[in-house]
Design brief:
Layout: H1 9-16, H2 28-44, H3 46-51, H4 59-86
Protein backbone atom coordinates (compact mmCIF):
# COMPACT_ATOMS: atom_id res chain seq x y z
CA UNK A 1 0.00 0.00 0.00
CA UNK A 2 1.42 3.38 -1.01
CA UNK A 3 0.70 6.49 1.05
CA UNK A 4 1.48 9.18 -1.51
CA UNK A 5 -1.23 11.35 0.04
CA UNK A 6 1.35 12.53 2.52
CA UNK A 7 2.97 14.58 -0.24
CA UNK A 8 0.64 14.85 -3.22
CA UNK A 9 -2.74 16.53 -2.94
CA UNK A 10 -4.30 14.65 -5.87
CA UNK A 11 -3.46 11.24 -4.46
CA UNK A 12 -4.52 12.46 -1.02
CA UNK A 13 -8.03 13.04 -2.28
CA UNK A 14 -8.08 9.65 -4.02
CA UNK A 15 -6.93 7.69 -0.98
CA UNK A 16 -8.94 9.46 1.71
CA UNK A 17 -11.99 10.57 -0.24
CA UNK A 18 -14.50 12.07 2.21
CA UNK A 19 -11.80 12.41 4.87
CA UNK A 20 -10.31 15.35 2.99
CA UNK A 21 -11.67 18.60 4.33
CA UNK A 22 -12.60 21.57 2.16
CA UNK A 23 -9.13 23.13 2.13
CA UNK A 24 -7.42 19.85 1.22
CA UNK A 25 -6.62 19.10 4.84
CA UNK A 26 -7.07 15.59 6.19
CA UNK A 27 -9.13 15.10 9.33
CA UNK A 28 -6.94 14.42 12.35
CA UNK A 29 -8.88 11.33 13.30
CA UNK A 30 -8.17 9.85 9.86
CA UNK A 31 -4.47 10.65 10.15
CA UNK A 32 -4.46 8.83 13.46
CA UNK A 33 -6.08 5.80 11.86
CA UNK A 34 -3.54 5.73 9.04
CA UNK A 35 -0.69 6.15 11.52
CA UNK A 36 -2.00 3.31 13.67
CA UNK A 37 -2.07 1.13 10.57
CA UNK A 38 1.46 2.12 9.60
CA UNK A 39 2.77 1.43 13.10
CA UNK A 40 1.19 -2.02 13.06
CA UNK A 41 2.85 -2.73 9.71
CA UNK A 42 6.23 -1.53 10.98
CA UNK A 43 5.92 -3.61 14.13
CA UNK A 44 5.43 -6.86 12.22
CA UNK A 45 7.76 -6.10 9.30
CA UNK A 46 10.55 -8.70 9.04
CA UNK A 47 13.26 -6.03 8.70
CA UNK A 48 12.09 -4.35 11.90
CA UNK A 49 11.94 -7.65 13.75
CA UNK A 50 15.49 -8.50 12.59
CA UNK A 51 16.75 -5.28 14.16
CA UNK A 52 16.04 -6.66 17.62
CA UNK A 53 15.49 -3.04 18.62
CA UNK A 54 14.21 -2.58 22.17
CA UNK A 55 13.99 1.14 23.03
CA UNK A 56 12.52 2.55 26.24
CA UNK A 57 9.48 3.74 24.29
CA UNK A 58 8.03 1.17 21.94
CA UNK A 59 5.70 1.07 18.98
CA UNK A 60 3.08 -0.14 21.43
CA UNK A 61 3.59 3.05 23.45
CA UNK A 62 3.04 5.11 20.31
CA UNK A 63 -0.11 3.14 19.50
CA UNK A 64 -1.40 3.73 23.02
CA UNK A 65 -0.73 7.46 22.74
CA UNK A 66 -2.63 7.58 19.45
CA UNK A 67 -5.54 5.70 21.03
CA UNK A 68 -5.70 8.31 23.79
CA UNK A 69 -5.70 11.13 21.24
CA UNK A 70 -8.43 9.37 19.24
CA UNK A 71 -10.53 8.92 22.40
CA UNK A 72 -10.15 12.63 23.22
CA UNK A 73 -11.16 13.63 19.69
CA UNK A 74 -14.21 11.38 19.75
CA UNK A 75 -15.26 12.71 23.18
CA UNK A 76 -14.79 16.28 21.99
CA UNK A 77 -16.85 15.61 18.86
CA UNK A 78 -19.64 14.04 20.92
CA UNK A 79 -19.71 17.01 23.28
CA UNK A 80 -19.80 19.38 20.33
CA UNK A 81 -22.72 17.48 18.75
CA UNK A 82 -24.66 17.48 22.03
CA UNK A 83 -24.00 21.19 22.46
CA UNK A 84 -25.30 21.94 18.95
CA UNK A 85 -28.44 19.87 19.60
CA UNK A 86 -29.10 21.80 22.83
CA UNK A 87 -28.99 25.13 20.99
Amino acid sequence: MTFWFLTFDYQQKQVLGDSVMSKGEVKLIDLIGVTQYLLSQIEKHPDFIKLEYYPDLTIGDAQTALSYIKDELESSQQLSAVSKEAN
